[in-house]
Design a protein that fits this description.
Strand content of chain B: over 45%
CATH superfamily of chain B: Immunoglobulins
Number of helices of chain B: 0
CATH class of chain B: Mainly Beta
Strand content of chain A: over 45%
Helix content of chain A: under 10%
Radius of gyration of chain A: 14 Å
Order of helices and strands of chain B: EEEEEEEEEEE
CATH topology of chain B: Immunoglobulin-like
Largest sheet of chain B: 7 strands, mixed
Radius of gyration of chain B: 13 Å
Number of domains of chain A: 1
Largest sheet of chain A: 6 strands, mixed
Distance between the termini of chain A: 41 Å
Number of domains of chain B: 1
Number of strands of chain B: 11
Shape of chain A: globular
Largest interface: A-B, 25 and 27 residues
Helix content of chain B: under 10%
Oligomer: heterodimer
Order of helices and strands of chain A: EEEEEEEEEEEE
Distance between the termini of chain B: 37 Å
C-alpha cells in the first residue's frame, strides 16, 4: 500500500522569507503523480503544484517549487518570498497513473506566516 | 465556470439519524471522488465514480455508508444511523478526462454527530 508521510506537523516562517515543507512517500509503482495541496480555514483544498514522476525536472509555479528526489522517494515544497496569504494547512498527496486512482494524503503541515 | 459545490456546508445530526450530503461536480467532469477528513488529519478516500458507475467503494468504513451518482453528475453520500465517529469533514472532488490527474475539490460538509 502506498503511504505518504509529512514529518513536520507545524512550521513557521517570517514574511518574505523562504520555507521548505517535507514529504516522503512509499510506493512500488514507477510512474505516478505527486501533488501539494493547500487547505485554508475555509476548507477548500487548493492545488499548489503537481509533479509527474517520469519528469526529472522539478516543477515550479511562481513562488512555489519542489525538490523531487525519486530514488529517495522525497518530495519537498519550497515557498519563496512567503506572504501572509500562504498561511494554511499543506498536504502532500500521491496518485498512481492508473485510471480512477484515489489520492493518498499525508497528515499535513500547518504553516504560520509571521508579519 | 463554477467549481465543485457541496451542500450543506454544515450538518448537525443526533446519533442514529440518517444524513445525506450532496456534491455538484464541475460540469463535464467524468470522475467523482468522496473523501473523509477527520479533525487534524489528511483526507482519506471513501469512494470513486466514473460517470454513474461506482468503480471503487473500498474506502467506505461500514455498510451504513452509501453513495450514488445516478445520472453521472450530482452525487449523494448517505450515512445511515449516524455515530459519533462519523463526525468529520466530507470532501468531494471531480476530475476531467485527460492525463493531468488533477482533482478539483469542493469546500466540504462538516458533519457533527451529537
Amino acid at each position: 500500500a502506498q503511504t505518504v508521510t509529512q514529518s513536520q506537523p507545524e512550521m513557521s516562517v517570517q514574511e518574505a522569507e523562504t520555507v521548505t515543507l517535507s514529504c516522503t512517500y512509499d510506493t512500488s509503482e514507477s510512474d505516478y503523480y505527486l501533488f501539494w495541496y493547500k487547505q485554508p480555514p475555509s476548507r477548500q483544498m487548493i492545488l499548489v503544484i503537481r509533479q509527474e514522476a517520469y519528469k526529472q525536472q522539478n516543477a515550479t509555479e511562481n513562488r512555489f517549487s519542489v525538490n523531487f528526489q525519486k530514488a529517495a522517494k522525497s518530495f519537498s515544497l519550497k515557498i519563496s518570498d512567503s506572504q501572509l496569504g500562504d498561511a494554511a494547512m499543506y498536504f502532500c498527496a500521491y496518485n498512481p497513473k492508473t485510471s480512477g486512482s484515489r489520492l493518498t494524503f499525508g497528515e499535513g503541515t500547518q504553516l504560520t506566516v509571521n508579519p | 465556470g463554477a467549481g465543485v459545490s457541496q451542500s450543506p456546508r454544515y450538518k448537525v445530526a443526533k446519533r442514529g439519524q440518517d444524513v445525506a450530503l450532496r456534491c455538484d461536480p464541475i460540469s463535464g467532469h467524468v470522475s467523482l471522488f468522496w473523501y473523509q477528513q477527520a479533525l487534524g488529519q489528511g483526507p482519506e478516500f471513501l469512494t470513486y465514480f466514473q460517470n454513474e458507475a461506482q468503480l471503487d467503494k473500498s474506502g467506505l468504513p461500514s455498510d451504513r455508508f452509501f453513495a450514488e451518482r445516478p445520472e453521472g453528475s450530482v452525487s449523494t453520500l448517505k450515512i445511515q444511523r449516524t455515530q459519533q465517529e462519523d463526525s468529520a469533514v466530507y470532501l468531494c472532488a471531480s476530475r476531467p478526462d485527460g492525463d493531468k490527474n488533477i482533482q478539483y475539490f469542493g469546500a466540504g460538509t462538516r458533519l457533527s454527530v451529537l
